């Protein structure tokens, strides 16, 4: 069961003549959100991470340094996102007072627009209070695989990777690419990357499933309409306190030469790593680093995250259905969303939401879709 929406924003607050009342309601809502997000704990962690960043030996361990600096940047962004709303509300209060005193209709009209923008910002922030699942506060590990549809599907997989990385850039979240497997003609066979930000998993978990692309194929000489598919999987990134033991005898390790787009070699040594977990059949590959050791380390991080999720699902049977929905087959049966180029629309089939600005969505403007799934989805 989803937690209730924070009182205030969910009550349909709209711009109107009574600015003072509406501003007070927004202030009360922000205060409630701050309590839910626990800004005091956030500030303590920021201070601790700041001390770690200042340590002279931080970059002796590059993987840990990237994790520390990435999380510090993400937390600082989250804190700024909340605290900046107070400044905007204060500025709006002053703007309204001056507009009323001077009888400035233009300033009053702009005040109404800013009040509407603030309403939207607070409403988006409020969605964060719905992320109360066991792993929702974690960073996200995202895997995209091309499905049915040939070269169009591979091209679509690359579009989706760009969409999620642009979304991360919009929110000032760092992205760490673990593996990219390029298709022969264009696009990607698969890609795995982490988004290092608080609540990235809770936010993006609704993206898991099969995505469908409908368009006139640029790869078809006859200009026919093509329907293609790509599967998105989202799992939480593990923390150091998470325990998952993988006996050596359960792992098969293969190494091979990394390759780039079109099969062109990007490495002259066997630096790419493929891990196969024999009991479950899970396969993880990593080839984006030049060092075999680094690729092996990243591959084990991915494998541990996936095995840990399986372990948690065994302990919590209700999560099993969610996982099955995440691991799409690349076929037609499990599609969660359709991207239609001709009509420039995106439709989420789970909640019946259609947005007619496909180009913006593919550029990372995902908040409306994600927030709608959090507030309307089951």
Query: Could you tell me how far the N terminus lies from the C terminus, measured between alpha carbons in angstroms?
Result: 8 Å
Q: Helix proportion of residues, in percent?
A: 40-55%
Shape by Cα distribution? globular
Strand order of the largest sheet: 2-3-1-5-4-9-10-11
The computed structural class is alpha+beta
Q: How many discrete domains?
A: 2
Largest sheet, in brief, is: 8 strands, mixed
Assembly state: single chain
CATH architecture of the largest domain: 2-Layer Sandwich
Range of strand content:
15-25%
Overall mean pLDDT stands at 82
Report low-confidence residues grouped into runs of 5 or more. 1-16, 262-266, 327-333
Q: Which fold name fills CATH's third level, the topology of the largest domain?
A: Alpha-Beta Plaits
Secondary-structure element string: HHHHEHEEHEEEEEHHEEEHH
Structure overview:
The chain has two domains: 9-130, Methane Monooxygenase Hydroxylase, Chain G, domain 1, CATH 1.20.58.410; 140-376, Alpha-Beta Plaits, CATH 3.30.70. The chain is 46% helix and 20% strand. It is built from ten helices and eleven strands. It has helices at residues 19-37, 39-54, 62-102, 105-127, 150-170, 200-204, 292-315, 319-326, 358-362, 367-376, and strands spanning 140-146, 174-182, 188-196, 209-216, 225-236, 251-256, 272-277, 282-286, 335-340, 345-348, 353-355. An eight-stranded mixed β-sheet has the order 2-3-1-5-4-9-10-11, with helices on both faces. Strand 9 and strand 10 form a beta hairpin. The longest helix is centred in the N-terminal third of the chain and has 41 residues, at 62-102.
């Amino acid at each position: 069961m989803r937690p209730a929406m924070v009182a205030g924003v969910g009550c349909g607050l709209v711009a109107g003549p009574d600015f003072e009342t509406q501003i007070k309601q927004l202030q009360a809502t922000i205060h409630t959100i701050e309590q839910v997000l626990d800004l005091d704990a956030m500030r303590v962690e920021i201070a601790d991470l700041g001390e770690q960043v200042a340590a002279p030996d931080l970059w002796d361990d590059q993987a840990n340094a990237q994790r520390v600096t990435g999380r510090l940047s993400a937390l600082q962004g989250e804190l700024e996102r909340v605290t900046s709303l107070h400044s905007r509300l204060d500025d709006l209060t002053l703007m309204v007072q001056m507009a009323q005193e001077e009888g400035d209709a233009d300033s009053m009209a702009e005040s109404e627009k800013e009040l509407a923008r603030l309403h939207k910002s607070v409403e988006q922030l409020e969605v964060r209070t719905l992320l109360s699942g066991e792993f929702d506060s974690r960073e996200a590990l995202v895997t995209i695989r091309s499905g049915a549809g040939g070269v169009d599907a591979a091209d679509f997989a690359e579009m989706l990777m760009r969409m999620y990385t642009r979304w991360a850039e919009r929110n000032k979240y760092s992205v760490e690419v673990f593996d990219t497997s390029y298709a022969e003609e264009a696009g990607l066979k698969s890609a795995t990357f982490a988004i290092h930000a608080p609540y990235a998993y809770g936010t993006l978990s609704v993206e898991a499933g099969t995505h469908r692309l409908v368009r006139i194929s640029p790869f078809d000489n006859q200009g026919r309409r093509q329907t293609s598919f790509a599967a998105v999987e989202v799992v939480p990134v593990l923390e150091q306190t998470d325990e998952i033991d993988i006996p050596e005898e359960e792992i098969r390790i293969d190494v091979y030469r990394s390759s780039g787009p079109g099969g062109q070699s990007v490495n002259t040594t066997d630096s790419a790593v493929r891990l196969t977990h024999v009991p479950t059949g899970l396969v993880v590959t990593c080839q984006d680093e030049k060092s075999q050791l680094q690729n092996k380390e990243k591959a084990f991080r991915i494998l541990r995250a996936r095995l840990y999720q399986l372990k948690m699902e065994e302990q919590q049977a209700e999560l099993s259905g969610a996982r099955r929905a995440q691991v799409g087959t690349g076929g037609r049966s499990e599609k969660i969303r359709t991207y239609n180029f001709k009509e420039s629309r995106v439709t989420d089939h789970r909640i019946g939401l259609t947005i007619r600005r496909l180009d913006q969505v593919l550029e990372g403007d995902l908040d409306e879709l994600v927030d709608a799934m959090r507030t309307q989805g089951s």
